[in-house]
Design brief:
It holds the Pfam family MPAB_Lcp_cat. By secondary structure, the protein is an all-alpha fold. It contains 16 helices and 2 strands. Helix 5 runs parallel beside helix 15 (about 265-280) and helix 7 packs across helix 13 (about 235-250).
């Protein structure tokens, strides 16, 4: 049998699998975009170098593809997408109108901010939504995510690997954060976006999207919501209850149905991952989510 490390980047017993297979990830993903937008230079990098304003779902699904490949994909797939992302970033520049200076998109400071805003949002949405993680498991998740950060060009040792380290990082960076015109437009847009062409059939249901966008906004840290001031405050218990209901609803969907939200390439990657693990002796009858149950792993590790 193949070695597990040759099959998937992160093993099924990792905390990363528990978090990344949870459907609260969609709230975490949009929350992460809203949080990232508070860094002026990072926000201008997105604004100047992407089609985010025209296709926010596309960016979210491309992020989901990257996260999926560096979690459930093979090491080869993870290395390939890492090289692709680093190559794209290496060629892009950001013009700062405040200083007139030009910056690289792959500046380690910017990459670190994007990583921390993203993974902390995934973790917060999952834990607040009801995924039972201990403090030790939360620390372990951030520790495991240091490996994911290396695929975009960060050094392992420069990335927060515990909740305490993540809190210290945000405390350090907060004085540099502010709401630019681009950030204000972005957070409004994320609460009421235009649908991409391949999702236009969902347009009649677009008014139902606003509660989702608002939910993502309300899961932001209090200090971030205070900076934005985009919506009136509501009780935290209400937000938590709504997040738990959202998570419960999406988690009830069968994996083949749920996977349709991803890009075709992502669905193919997930299918290939299930096949590799099944061939290695894992019980994939309940999909990848079923593999977080120790009973569905081989009695003897594949070797």
């Amino acid at each position: 049998m193949a070695n597990l490390g040759e099959l998937v980047v992160q093993p099924p017993h990792s905390v990363t699998w528990k978090v990344h297979l949870d459907r609260s990830m969609w709230v975490g993903g949009v929350r992460g975009l809203m949080l990232q937008a508070l860094h002026p230079l990072a926000m201008r990098g997105v604004w100047q170098n992407s089609t985010f304003q025209d296709d926010p779902f596309g960016r979210l699904r491309r992020t989901a593809d990257f996260v999926g490949r560096v979690t459930f994909g093979s090491p080869k797939e993870a290395d390939e997408i890492g090289r692709r992302v680093r190559g794209i970033h290496r060629a892009l520049r950001i013009r700062d109108p405040d200083t007139g200076r030009t910056h690289r998109v792959d500046d380690p400071e910017l990459l670190l901010w994007v990583h921390c805003a993203e993974v902390s949002s995934y973790l917060e949405a999952a834990r607040r939504g009801g995924l039972g993680l201990t403090e030790r498991q939360a620390d372990r998740y951030l520790y495991e995510q240091r490996r994911s950060a290396t695929y975009v060009g960060l050094h392992l040792d420069d990335v927060p690997g515990s909740c305490a380290e993540m809190d210290a990082y945000f405390k350090q960076v907060r004085p540099t954060l502010r709401v630019t015109d681009e950030a204000a437009s972005t957070v409004r847009f994320l609460m009421w976006p235009r649908l991409p062409h391949d999702l236009r059939l969902l347009s009649p249901g677009k008014p139902a999207y606003f509660p989702f966008g608002a939910l993502c906004y309300y899961t932001l840290p209090e200090w971030a919501r205070r900076l934005y001031g985009a919506l009136p405050e509501v009780p935290g218990a209400t937000v938590t209850a709504a997040l738990k209901a959202f998570r419960l609803g999406l988690n009830s969907l069968p994996e083949p149905v749920y996977d349709r939200v991803f890009m075709p390439a992502t669905r193919e990657m997930l299918r290939a991952s299930r096949e590799r693990l099944g061939a290695a002796g894992y019980d994939v009858s309940k999909g990848l989510r079923g593999l977080t149950d120790p009973r569905r792993r081989p009695a003897v590790p594949a070797a």
